[in-house]
Structures are given as structure tokens and as C-alpha cells.
Amino acid sequence: xxxxxxxxxxxxxxxxxxxxxxxxxxxxxxxxxxxxxxxxxxxxxxxxxxxxxxxxxxxxxxxxxxxxxxxxxxxxxxxxxxxxxxxxxxxxxxxxxxxxxxxxxxxxxxxxxxxxxxxxxxxxxxxxxxxxxxxxxxxxxxxxxxxxxxxxxxxxxxxxxxxxxxxxxxxxxxxxxxxxxxxxxxxxxxxxxxxxxxxxxxxxxxxxxxxxxxxxxxxxxxxxxxxxxxxxxxxxxxxxxxxxxxxxxxxxxxxxxxxxxxxxxxxxxxxxxxxxxxxxxxxxxxxx
Amino acid sequence: xxxxxxxxxxxxxxxxxxxxxxxxxxxxxxxxxxxxxxxxxxxxxxxxxxxxxxxxxxxxxxxxxxxxxxxxxxxxxxxxxxxxxxxxxxxxxxxxxxxxxxxxxxxxxxxxxxxxxxxxxxxxxxxxxxxxxxxxxxxxxxxxxxxxxxxxxxxxxxxxxxxxxxxxxxxxxxxxxxxxxxxxxxxxxxxxxxxxxxxxxxxxxxxxxxxxxxxxxxxxxxxxxxxxxxxxxxxxxxxxxxxxxxxxxxxxxxxxxxxxxxxxxxxxxxxxxxxxxxxxxxxxxxxxxxxxxxxxxxxxxxxxxxxxxxxxxxxxxxxxxxxxxxxxxxxxxxxxxxxxxxxxxxxxxxxxxxxxxxxxxxxxxxxxxxxxxxxxxxxxxxxxxxxxxxxxxxxxxxxxxxxxxxxxxxxxxxxxxxxxxxxxxxxxxxxxxxxxxxxxxxxxxxxxxxxxxxxxxxxxxxxxxxxxxxxxxxxxxxxxxxxxxxxxxxxxxxxxxxxxxxxxxxxxxxxxxxxxxxxxxxxxxxxxxxxxxxxxxxxxxxxxxxxxxxxxxxxxxxxxxxxxxxxxxxxxxxxxxxxxxxxxxxxxxxxxxxxxxxxxxxxxxxxxxxxxxxxxxxxxxxxxxxxxxxxxxxxxxxxxxxxxxxxxxxxxxxxx
Lengths: 288, 656
Hints:
By secondary structure, chain A is an alpha/beta fold. Chain A contains eleven helices and twelve strands.
């Protein structure tokens, strides 16, 4: 196991010539590369938005994440791919502390995630999240879903928040549904409301946890369109998805995970045409 | 790719452009076609054949249980209409049953209370009852004909009447009572036959009219119909000779053959007019308001509902006598002091950027507030109860203050709310401490059914928030809350209610701080509240557990604090799920108030069970009273349960 990782890490480091640093764990003293290096210099010059260093996460005895190290730059679009159970969702959920990681560091916009409640609250209000199951509040209308957090967390006045909600609904293409309840909308519309709800907090980063997996096929496109528009507007995005088309068209970088580890990092072009790792090739042959 | 059904396709057309009207029309037509044909029966005979006698075995069941029902009905009718029944005991003592010994000359106070509730009901109905909920004329016709048929059946079922001799005594032969012949009895009951015939004919005529569409409407507004129906008993009080029965100032009045007393029919007529007027007013207001203003009207109206029990009991029913010297020298200054100092503290606690310090100050305040009560118990220093209570309230509001921090508008709103709260609390506390001017022979102000309602209402109002808090504490992440709530709930649930009641009635006063006393009814209400809260907490906990994890995650992800998450996301969903068990618990509480009879309160059960049978005129007459009391309980409990079903339906809107 550790040999394998060593080999991969070496090759990655060799290819991109990135800075390396020492792992903290004594016996496992392996140098691994920082995953940011997989992109252009222009991107590398930007500020770090999300930094993960050696993140480990166990569920009981099961290790869901092992040694995740990656940096996501400002305005970067990163798509995380991988077979189910590979830990992609767990990782993304660790970034706004829906799950607590046990080892390593996660730094979001310069704030490290620790058990300190204030840090968590601060990061959560900077990080928007969209869930597979939408998780809209079923007892509130669409507009109340969107304005709840701006009013109570951002302390906006109600008219101000409602104006914001109206403009966001316009942006996601469903301004006419404002007064409806989530249960009265189609899946695609619900997911777009969920995106608007996350955007209403004016986040610096958006996390998408399989946003289209619970949708009927004919509704996937309307959600992806919204995400694409969002990407073009300069939002930093981290997307866990099975939509290869989206990864190819929109992503700046693709991260491939398996078994709780990052297997390969690269531009979409590199990833889809010339993957280095055997496991990546196997995965691509199955899904494409 | 699966084929989306027409409606779904139309709904999801969202961003692609405006929905093509042709598409929706097609979808609507498809939906209309897709509806299953309504099951109709050509004749009543067909319905009976298909539903009651569909197989030999089912026929047997129908006949066997039909006979059972008939026998039960016959028994009940014979009991209720028997010449040996002393219904005079009930109608003479109606006032006793409902309010016990509330003094005659102050009775207008009770009518003011009823009138207030009636006006509030009328306003609520007028403003918020939905137009759409109509009663089908077809249904009305069926009910009319059905009631007529039931009356006819009842007339036939009931035994022939007992013969009485010239002295009025029952004629007996060989110890058996002698009865009229069947046909004599039937002829004697001509009024009932007439009523049955009128109802059946009216029902059939109405049905025919609806079927042949001679009547242009198919339904009438439910609320208006119910209110109009209430006019029937009210009007009959002026016309029909129900008889005048009363028990006033120790003398019994029994004058059959005339209409009911003025002191009964005038107030009820006024009540009916009030409800009509309030409803009309509500409708007028609704017409003048748009949707949003109507929604806003809910808040003051609900506050009136919430405040009415306190105001009606302490101000109207008790008519407290205020000592103005004391009010001016102690009560008002204290209220103002707490208002002003509290406002200052809250203003400071909501300063933007106060952060953790605010919470620490709030916790310290809470500690001091709790210490005040402990000190009171040991008598370390004296302090007015009002002051202790205000202190506690201040600490609790301070705990929630950080939610209002920042913007000046919100801070001002919090401070205003605090001032209003203090005004209300001090007003009522002062009134509570003032002696009542209403003189009654018992220790309690009022008895009978009124005390049942009062205890039930206060128990429900107090135990509901307590139950919710307990449920939240039990599901809290903080072990101290979890342990406290769990042990409280398990202890209370392990003790019989009657034990708790007796404990509170007898022993509570011994545990109170020196100089503090609490009335029997208040301590019983406290006992009921603590008991009921434990059960409510379990119901709410069930609701809390049904809220999906995704809701918690979504609230966390948008940055809501734990309190905000609980108040805005989790509780609304949890409470909606737990409406049926919550209402069940409320009905149980309402019925359990009959245990008041055991600890010595003159409640409605005690009236029927011991007070009336002890009157010289009605010695030993118990069953009639008990039957009547059961009926009264049932009417209230059934109404509650019906309302809860309506609430459930209404809140179901927008649910996934």
C-alpha cells in the first residue's frame, strides 16, 4: 500500500517538479507532491482557496480518506471523479466540516478547520454547498429557503434579502417559482433553488456533492447549465460528479480518487486522453 | 431515458422558455381523461347489495352486528327517555355543572369571557377560514334524511311508556310496571313522528332538487352554514317551551311549559349575534386586505388568543382589588426599573462585535437568577417573587440576545419586545397578588366545567413549551441537558398522575419558600403541566427524530447556528409530524382534569357524582348527571380532534 503511494507520488512530483514536503507521521516518512502542480503557472500564481494536507478520516475502523493532499486555487474549477465509495463525497464534506477529519490540516480561505466552533461557523458562511438530495427546507417557500440564512446569518434586512433572492432565482432561471414550496417543483428546479440558496450567502467557494445524481436524465442539463454559468462567472468550485462531459468542458483540473486516496491529478485533456495510472485507465474504460 | 408524463414535462420546461399553452392544455386534457371513473350506484338497493350483502358470510356479519347496534340503541333510548329518569336534576343544576358557585350578581363576568372567546372565534373564522371548504348540498340532504330515519327508528325502538296512576305513581302488577300498548305509545309520540317525516321529506326534496339541477349551487360555505345552524337552538329558546329550571340562592325553580329564563336566552342570543358580527367584520377585513396583510393579521390575532386566558381569568373572572398605594409605591417602580435596566443590558449585549463576552454575561445572569430562587428556598434574603421572575426572564432573553446583535433596527426591536414583556408580566403579577373581590363559598373562585376548561387550557399552554424544551434537551449534544431531561421524563412517566396530583395538592406548599402560598387549583395545574410535559416531550422527540439528516446538514452548510437551525428548520418540521400525538396528549390532558375531583376541587365530575345527588330534591340521582357530563366532555374532545385533523390537512400543503 505505502509502496504504491510512494511510487505514484514520486512520479507525480517528477513530472510537475513541484515543491515537496515531509509527512508528519514518523514511520511513513514519504515525500509527496502537492496536487496543485498539475496546472499552469498562471493558476499556480493565484491565492490558495482550499488547502488540504495529509487529511485522514476514519468511519469506525474503515479508513475513508487517507493522506489527501491538494490545493485548490482561487477561481479554479476542480472536478473530483472516482468510483462510488472512493471517498470523494467524504472529502468534500470534510471541507465545510459536515464530517470531521481526524488527521492533517484543512485550510479554507486562510482559516484552519479545527474544533473551534467560531472557525467552523466562519468557514461555513464562506463555503456554499449543494447536495445530491437538494435538502431544501420543505416547510418554507422557495424565497424563504433562499432568504433564511442571509437574514439570520448575514443579518440582512428582509427586503434586501428578498431582492437578492429574486435576482438569484432569475440567475438560475426560475424567477416565477418564488412563492412555491419545494415539494411543488421538479427535481431540476429544486436543485437550482438549492444552488440559489447557497449563492445567497455570497460564498467564496461552492462545493457540489453529486448535484445531478438524484435527477431524472432530462433535468440534468438544466442544472449543469447553471453550474457552467457559475463557473464562467469566476466562482471557485469543487464538484463531485459522474458527469464526464461537465468535467471535460468546464474543469480546470480533474482529481481522480479511489479507495480514499488521490490517484491522479491533471487537466481534463491529460486526464481523458492520456491518463498515467492504471486505475484511472480502468475507471475511464468503465464509464466512457 | 424514461418518458416523463405530460404534467411533469410541462413543469420542468422552466429555463427552456415560456411554457407552450398548447402543451399544458393537452396535459390537462390527458389528466382529465386519466381520472378513474367515479364509482356510482344506480339505486340504494344496489349500494346495499354491494356493500352489506356481498357474500353469505358478509350478510351474516351485517345482520348480527346490525342487531347488536339496534339493541344497544334501544337500551340507551329506554334509559334516556324513561319516565323514571330525573333529568330535572341536570337542567335545574346546569349553572352548578358549568360554573359551580360563581355568584349570581357577578355572572355577567362569565358572559364577558364567553363573549370574548366567541368574538375571537368569529374574527378568526371570518379572516382565515377558507372559502373553498364548502358543504355539499347532497351531503346535507343525506344527513337530513338520515337523521329523520334515525328518529323514526328510535321512536319505534323505544319501549312503550310506563303508565302512571291518578296519584302520579307508577302502576305495578306483580312487581312489573304496566306499560301503554305499542300503538298508544306510537300515537303519543306524534311530535317525533312529525319531526322525522319533515326531515326525511326535506332531505329527499333537496336531493331531488340538486339532482335535477334546479338549485344552481351544489354546496354552501361550511362556516356560514354551521353558524346559521346555531341559530336554530338560539331561536328555539325564545319560542319552544323548554321550561324554566334553576337553582338560585338555595331555592329550586321548576316551571315547565314556559320558555327558558331571560338570563339564559338573552346572553346566548347576544353570543350568536356577536359571532355573526365578528365573522362579518373578519370577512370585510379580508376583502380589504391583500394576501400579505392578511398574513400579518394573524400575529395580533394569535397574540390575543394566547393572552386571552390570562386576561379573562385574572382580570375579568377574578376582578382583583388593587391597593393603589402599593401599586404606585412598589409595583410600578419595580416594573419600570426592570424594564429600563433590562433594556440597557440587552442593548449592550446586542452591540455588534460583543461576541463571546455577551454569552458569558448571559450565563452569569442566568446563574444569579437561579441563585435567587435557591436563596428564596432557604430564606437567605427576601425579594419579591416578581423580581425573581423578572430576573429569570431577563437572563433567558439575554441568552437569546446574540441573535439580534448588529443592526440597529433588530436591536431596537428586541428592546421594545423586552419592554412589552415586562409590562405584561408585571401587570399580571400585580393582579395575581391582589385579592379577588368575587365572593364564593368555596376556596376556589369557580368550579364545574369552567374549572375543567381553565385547568386544561393553562396546562396545555404551559406544558407545550416545556415539553418542546425537554425534547430538545433530550436530543441535545450536551450530556448535562440529556441526562437531566431523560431522568426527568423517565421519573415523571414512571409515577401515576394521581400521585403527582395529590403530592402537589397536599405537599407542595410545605416546600415553597417562606411566605409564598399557592392555591389548590394552581398547584394542581402545576402538577398536570409537569406530567403532561413529559409525555409531550416524548411525542416531540419522535417528530425530531423524523427530521432527515440532510436538513441538519443543509442548515449547517448555510451557516445557521444551532439555535437558528432548531427554531427555523428542525422544530417546524418536527412539530408538524407530531401534531396527531400532540393533540392526542392535549385531549388526554383535558379528560384527565376529571381527577381534580379526587383532590377536592369542585370540578364538573364532582358536581355530577357527589354534589347533585346530595341535594334534597334530587337525592341519589347520579346517572343522569354522569351521562350529561360525559356528553359535554365528548363534545369538547371530539371538536379538538376534528380541529387537529383540519390542522394536519392544512399544514400538509407544500409537503413533499
